[in-house]
Amino acid sequence: MPTVAVYRKEHFNAAHRLHNDAFDEATNDKIFGKCNNPHFHGHNYELIVKVTGEPDKQTGYVIDLKALSDIIKENVLKRFDHKNLNLDVSEFKNLNPTAENIVIVIYNILRPLINSAFGLQVRLYETERNFVEYPA
Amino acid sequence: MVYLTRIEHFNAAHKLYNPAWSKEKNEAVFGECANENWHGHNFELYVTVKGFPDKDTGFIMDAKKLSQLIQEQVTEKLDHKNLNLDVDFLSGKLCSTENLVVEIWKQLQPHLPAHASLHSLKLYETPRIFVEYFGENL
Question: Nearest to residue A21, comparing CAs of A93, A110, A88?
Fold first, then answer.
C-alpha cells in the first residue's frame, strides 16, 4: 500500500516572552529585542500535525482525523490555549518558549500518543509569516 | 469618493478582567480570557481612509505615509506589549477588542490630513473574530 500524509490543523492563543536568566538585562534586550518585554506579548498560534502511514484496508484511514484532533485538543490545546507559556506550561519553566522549542515540546507530547508505525511531523505558525517544523 | 485601506499588524498580550469584580465573577464572565497570567494574539488592523484622488498624484493619500502614520501613532505603542500594563492610552480601560478599536481611532484620527478622512477601522483579534468601528459617538 502507498504511504499517505494526513494533516490536522488546530490553533491556540498564548502569551510569552523570550528571556534567558543566564544573560544580563542588556544581553537579553540585545538578543531578544521587543520579544523580551517583561510584561509579555502574545500570538495566535496555528498548529499543523502531519501523520504519515498506509491507509487501513478496512477503514481507508491512515488515522481517524477526529481522533487525532481529540488527542491534540486534550494534550496540547487544553494546556496551551489562553495561557502564558512561560508561567502556565511546565515544560517552559526552564526552557525559552521560542517557536523552535514549542514545536519540539508539542512533538514530544504527541509522539507517544500516536501509533509508532506512523510518521509524525509538527508545523507551528507563530505569525502568518514565521513558522517552524519538527522534525526537520 | 474612493476608499483606501492599509493593513498593519501587531502582537500583544492581554487579559479580560474587571477589577471591580471578584476573581470568580471575572472567570464566569470572561472564561479563559480572564487568565491572570495573560494570553495573547496576533492582531490585524485595517485602516480605511476616504477622499478624492489628487489631480497630480492620483492618490487619496500616499499609502506608504499612511502606513508610517499608523505605525507611529498606533502599532509601535502596541506591538510586543501587554495591552493592560504597557499602553498609556488604554490605562484603566477593559482591554476588549471593542474598546481597543475605539481607542485606536482616537489615536489616529487627529493625525490624518484633511483630504483623507478616517472612514473605518477593522481589527482582527483572531482570523475568526474581528470588530469594526466607524467613529460614531465620539
Answer: A93
